[in-house]
Write a structure and sequence with these properties.
Length: 286
């Protein structure tokens, strides 16, 4: 299984509040009523940036773009990524509703859970590191060293101390940027970061402790040499919202009605969608 992830923000002419409303309500409604989306994405997670976080709380600074959202789509395969952005049904229903900036950080990654606290449940405060690899290091070497060098050290000195609830490493896979040609994500920064780290915390104070705790700080800094370009890496601090999940034991979502051929939602989908709300009252819907 792969993760197709996107970091974005509101349009220049819009606001953060409007962006979050449309993304969390309207966009989700469109996804839940589009059969191909519900078949392709096995898990869909939204992340909303926490506005009062500052660089002084972080090991890697916030981005100059001030990214506000991070979307996580789980697919079965590389072909699933291609299908998700070029499927006709998806394009017709999604691309006509533009609610965010055309700029993105776009990644397709393998992922591995390094640590998970007993009784862990998704959601809540989360720190995301977008890691730029050291110049001259291949993606393959970066992936191996992140897992074999950085992961054990962080597991011992950060996860083992009880500071985090969960730690996941995501490593970039090789993709053809042409797969996004003509899609909403055509202008995204594809493959800009070699890896993405995710840390779940109990609260925002614990995020700041990652920088102030001597053992945690040393664990991260000591594993950067020759691996990570710390000056070019960035952070996001977010609240995680799992919209649906069909793969995680203990957190499985009920099957959506749109996939039940006998449901009202499926009947509406079969008859097709038209801009009925724009027609004069009393006019016939063709």
């Amino acid at each position: 299984m792969l993760k197709f992830t996107l970091a974005s923000r509101h349009m220049e002419e819009g606001t953060r509040e409007r962006f979050f409303y449309e993304w969390s309500i309207i966009h989700v409604s469109l996804m839940l009523t589009t059969p191909s989306v519900m078949q392709l994405f096995k898990r869909y997670v939204q992340h909303f940036n926490i506005a009062d976080v500052t660089d002084e709380m972080l090991l890697y600074p916030l981005s100059p773009e001030r990214w506000e959202s991070f979307a996580e789509h789980w697919v079965d395969s590389y072909q699933g990524v291609i299908d998700s952005v070029h499927n006709r049904e998806y394009v017709e229903r999604m691309q006509s509703h533009r609610f965010g900036s055309h700029r993105f950080i776009t990644s397709v990654s393998d992922f591995e859970t390094i640590y998970q606290r007993e009784g862990f449940r998704s959601g809540g405060v989360k720190l995301i590191h977008f890691l730029k690899k050291h110049s001259g290091l291949s993606q393959c070497d970066f992936n191996q060293r992140l897992r074999k060098v950085r992961a054990p050290r962080l597991l011992d000195d950060i996860c083992g101390s009880g500071l985090v609830r969960k730690y996941v490493q995501n490593t970039l896979i090789d993709i053809d940027p042409a797969i996004f040609k003509g899609s909403l994500f055509e202008f995204g920064s594809i493959g800009l970061y070699a890896g993405i780290e995710e840390f779940w915390f109990d609260d925002l104070k614990d995020v700041a402790r990652l920088r102030t705790d001597a053992h945690a700080l040393d664990a991260i800094r000591s594993t950067e040499a020759g691996l990570i370009d710390a000056g070019a890496s960035i952070s996001m601090v977010v609240n995680e919202r799992v919209v649906w999940d069909y793969v995680t034991a203990g957190e499985l979502s009920p099957s959506p009605s749109i996939l039940n051929p006998n449901s009202l939602e499926a009947a509406i989908d079969r008859q097709g969608y038209q801009p009925w709300e724009l027609k004069p009252r009393g006019a016939k819907v063709q």
